[in-house]
Automatic annotation (TrEMBL):
Residues 1-33 are annotated as: Disordered. Residues 14-23 have a biased composition (Low complexity). The chain crosses the membrane at residues 87-111, 131-151, 163-181. It comes from Intrasporangium oryzae NRRL B-24470. This is Uncharacterized protein. Keywords: Membrane, Transmembrane, Transmembrane helix. It comes from the Bacteria. The lineage of its organism: Bacteria, Bacillati, Actinomycetota, Actinomycetes, Micrococcales.
Amino acid sequence: MFTVPVPRWDDEAAAAPEAPGPAVTQAIPAGSPSREPLATVPLPTFVPYAAEPPPTDTPTPAVVPAPALSRGTGAGTVPAEAEVDPLLGAVGVALFWMTVGWWVFVLVRVLGRVARVGGSDRLLIDTVDRYVEETIIAAILSVLAALLLLLSRGRSGRDALGWSALALAVVTVGVAVWRVLP
């Protein structure tokens, strides 16, 4: 047997919510493993298409293929913005900002080297030479960002962000070629 406290819901409990003295409890019988198991209830079976009426013998209309759409002018053309995938533009923006972040880290490394060692004429060369793999990956990411921003977003890709991604790609690839290739 278990005992649990029983709340009082009468007017006396409202007047004195915390009256001193023993709490009122009620005994609850404990479950015993010797009880009979509960009766199993059969689950309802699912019959697909049971609510739909049976098919009729009416013939179906013939399917007429749609005319092919071209990018030219005239009837049946698709506007340039209809083929734009917004996910590709978002990926391009993310890659662009990853490349910008890489350049920020290059700047932090250069400033850290200036603070530790002092300035020299080989400051940028030494910084890029230490992180050759990062330079190559940044060049690849910047080219992908420029391509995605300029080509996959339709006319909206040819805005300031698209052109700045192209400029950043040219600078990053230039630095990678300058330092990696002999």
